[in-house]
Every structure is written in C-alpha cells, then in structure tokens.
Amino acid sequence: MGYYIAPRFLNKLAVHITKNFLNLPGVRVPLILGIHGHKGEGKTFQCELVFDLMGVEAVHISGGELESPDAGDPARLIRLRYREAADLIRTRGKMAILMINDLDAGAGRFDQATQYTVNTQLVNGTLMNIADNPTNVQLPGSYDDKPLPRVPIIVTGNDLTTLYAPLVRDGRMEKFYWEPNREDKIGIVGGIFEPDELSKSDVETLVDTFLEQSIDFYGALRSRIYDEQILGFIESVGFARVGKQVVNSAEKPPSFKKPDFSLSHLIEQGKLIVNEQRRLQELRLAAAYNIGASNSQPNSSQDSAPAPTTQYERGNGSTRRNAEVDPPRQTSNGHNYSKPQATTIDSEVVQQVQTLLAQGYRIGVEYVDQRRFRTGSWQSATVIQAQDKSEAIATLESCLADHENEYVRVFGIQPGDRQRVMETIIQRPSR
After folding, report:
1. Residue 399 has what pLDDT?
2. Residue 192 burial (CB count, 10 A)
3. Pick from 157, 153, 95, 87: nearest CA to 126
4. What number of other Cβ atoms are within 10 A of residue 331's Cβ?
5. Using 50, 70 and 90 to split pLDDT, how confident is the model at 329?
6. What are the angstrom distances between the C-alpha of 192 and each of 39, 187, 204, 221, 224?
7. Does any domain span residue 190?
8. How many C-beta atoms lie closer than 10 Å to residue 381's C-beta?
9. Cβ contact 246:253 at 8 Å
10. Residue 153 C-alpha from the chain's centroid
11. Is 2 among the domain residues?
12. Which domain does 343 fall in, by range?
C-alpha cells in the first residue's frame, strides 16, 4: 500500500531532523519540534512515514506515561529513553529521534480543574533542561562525563499552549501547525483506498463530500465497509461460537470477498458516521447532568414557583425552544403578574448560561462561517458582562440573529486567569 506523505510535512520534519545532526557554527538549533493541530489529522502516522523514508530509528514515549504515583518516574523515563536513542546513534551509526506522542495530554494544563502535579513540573523542567543541554543528559544517582550524541525530539499534541510557556518558547521548541489541505487529503485518502482501486475522481468526490472531516474519518469509513460481511460471518457460525472460530482456532481464519467500495456506498456509510458524530456533539449528557447537579441546591424563592411551560421544535440539528412563559407570580402587594419571555435558545444553553453567571463567569460568544470552521478561525462576537439572566439571554439572541447562517459558540471566562470553561457550539448553519 503506497501511503501518501504530504510535502509540507516531509520538508518540515526532514529539515528539523537533519539540522540537529549538522554542525552549523553560530546557529542555535531548537532540539524539539512541536507538531500540533486538530485531532485525527494523522500527525503521528505522517511522522512514522517520514521516519521510514529517511531510515530514522524512533524511540517512543506516550503522553500516558508522563504521570505516575511515584514522583520523578516520568522525568527519569524521558532521560532514559533519550539516552537509549543516543546509544542507537552511537552504536548503529544511524539517525535516531525521541518521539513523545500527545505531550499536552500528559503534561498540559487545560483548565483550573486539571491538577498540576509534581510529575508535571518535573516533565516540563526535564524537557527544558535537555533542550538546553542535549549532550549532557544524566540519570538520577549517576554521572557519565562522556558527551552524548545530540538526539532530536519530536512531540505531537492538539494544543501546545497548555504546556509550560518557557518550554515552548523559540530556541527550545520549533512549532509546526499541521492541517492538511484539500490536495493533501486527496493524496492521503487515495493511499487509504488504493487496494480497493478507487479512481482518482471518486477519491476527489469523496473528499469534497466530507471535506470538514479529519483524516481518521476515512480510515474509519473503510473499516465500516467490512461490517456487513463480518456480521454475516458471525450469523453463519452463531454468536455463541464466534470465540472458538477466531481465537486459537485449529481451523484456518475466515476469508472475506471484496466488499462494495462503490462511491455511492461509501458516501452512504460516511453520512451514517457523520450523523453519529452530530448526535455525540449535541447530546452532551455529561454537561446536562452536571448542570442538573448544580441546580439541585435548595432555593426557597425558586422552589415556591411552578416550573415554566416550554414548547419545543426540532430544527438545524438541535432542539430549540419556541417560547418560555413564566407562570404568574404574586408580588408583595398581592397582585399577580406574568412576564413572557420569547427566546430561540436551547433550554440546555439557557441552563448553562445561568450556571456560568451564578458561578461568577463572564460569557464569551464567538462565530465563524462554514469555510473557516474547519480551520478553527473563530472570531469574537461579544463578551457578555451582565449578571442578569434575561439580559444575557437577550444579548445572546441578538448575536444569533446577527450571525444566522454561521457557527456560533459560547463559553465561560474565568475572571482571574481568563481560562475557558464549558465551551459549546449552540448554532450550526443549515445545509
């Protein structure tokens, strides 16, 4: 299978690796290359393809290995793997690198709820120390005065701003934002479906149909095409006997004929995957549960009033509220009054806004058009300073009206460090 390597990716990685093995007088070469971008765009896989092409040995560390119940273990692991890569360079006489996957997941701090542990501090400090002294990396409790070969470090992550700022500064880490363009996607998807003899025009149509999807979507789509045959195999042998057929079986493994890889079938199955993605994004049960828990505290003024009556309509991929009418309440002089409040905002969003305001957060609103949505180029619409729920909802409705055919999202802003919390897309353009 001939996998595609994006030229921009190949050039960036090849220059960084080669540059670290050259002696350039008076030039300070960053030891670390940070590759960041949206999830599922093939950052790690593209790295592996470049390593194979260049004949580079890679020593791997996962972001999940950067935390431990024993303080200091992850930092020691980084030094150990770095020295292992240096030994490969010294003994085999070939290029080797240290590859740390998902560094932000193991050493990043996403919000105020993320613990900043001793190991997180040591991991950041160790990488900074190695970047400053790449030929003198010692293990705790021992000292070797023999200089090590310089080992380039490649790290991947979705958001490198979550890392300790001095680690990602220029001079220590060179940054590379990876987002495949249409040509890159056509080349990569063509490599994925090469064994299935999908024509170039079909590949282009498939990519254009799901242009907003990440690279891993197409791998999942190809895997899904086999589901019908696998289900047929399971039904033929019986659900109770599947284990005996596929695990340590004396019989030869089952074989499957080539599935239907026609363009129409691929698009049909792709739309099913997209529908499941939307359902996942729109359901957000955890947020609903958390909001419900925060609103379950006793409140005499609210408990005495009956719940408002609400009507709903289905549209544009989410449930929206037509109108919310507060029931009549009695004032201190005994008169009743009713306060109608028309709104088009989902009830969950209303609850989210109310919860954020109650916790002292400001409400940020951003928008983006359909073309820039896949690049993540969001623009600020407004920051709602009001503490009154009705005023905040009115401002939010005005923003939705101003950006009717665009994506709109809201989030809370912590007053002190301006960290974002509870980020939610509340409007999607109609297709």
Report:
1. 87
2. 18
3. 153
4. 8
5. very low
6. 18, 9, 13, 10, 13
7. no
8. 22
9. yes
10. 22
11. no
12. 285-296+304-427
53 and 147 assigned to the same domain: yes
Quick one: 160 and 26 in the same domain? yes
350 lies in some domain:
yes
Considering only CA atoms, which of 141, 136, 77 is closest in space to residue 106? Answer: 77
Number of independent structural domains in the chain? 3
| pLDDT at site 224 | 94
Residue type, 353: V
Which neighbouring-strand residues pair with 323?
311, 342
Identity of the residue numbered 77: L
Please name every residue paired with 325 in a beta bridge, in sequence order, or none if there are none: 309, 340
What predicted TM-score, i.e. pTM, was given to this entire model? 0.67
pLDDT of residue 415: 73
207-229 confidence digits (pLDDT tens) = 999 999 999 999 999 999 999 89
356-382 pLDDT, tens per residue?
A: 888 788 888 899 888 788 777 888 888
Instruction: Evaluate whether 423 touches 353 at the Cβ level (below 8 Å).
Output: no
Sign of CA dihedral 294, 298, 304, 306: positive
Decide: helix, strand or coil at residue 11. Answer: helix
Sign of the Cα torsion 65, 66, 71, 73 reads positive
Torsion region of 171: left, alpha or beta (phi above 0 gives left; psi -120 to 50 gives alpha): left
Cα–Cα nearest to 217, from 241, 188, 243, 195:
188
**β-bridge pairing 153-157 and 32-36:** parallel
Nearest to 291 by CA among 343, 363, 354: 354
Rounded to whole angstroms, the Cα distance separating 403 from 259 reads 44
**CATH code: domain of residue 212:** 1.10.8.1070
Residue 12 and residue 78: Cα distance in Å, rounded?
Answer: 24
Contacts of the segment 401-408: beta carbons below 8 A, 24+ positions apart: 403/367, 403/427, 405/369, 405/429, 405/430, 406/367, 406/368, 406/369, 406/370, 407/367, 407/368, 407/369, 407/370, 407/373, 408/365, 408/366, 408/367, 408/381
Alpha-carbon 402 to chain mean position: 29
Domain contains 186 = no
pLDDT digits (tens, 9 = 90+) for 90-103: 999 999 999 999 99
Span 230-254, pLDDT tens digits: 999 999 889 998 998 889 888 888 8
Helical residues (DSSP H) of 197-323, grouped into ranges: 200-209, 215-225, 227-237, 242-246, 263-283, 285-294, 300-303
Residues 107 and 153 in one domain: yes
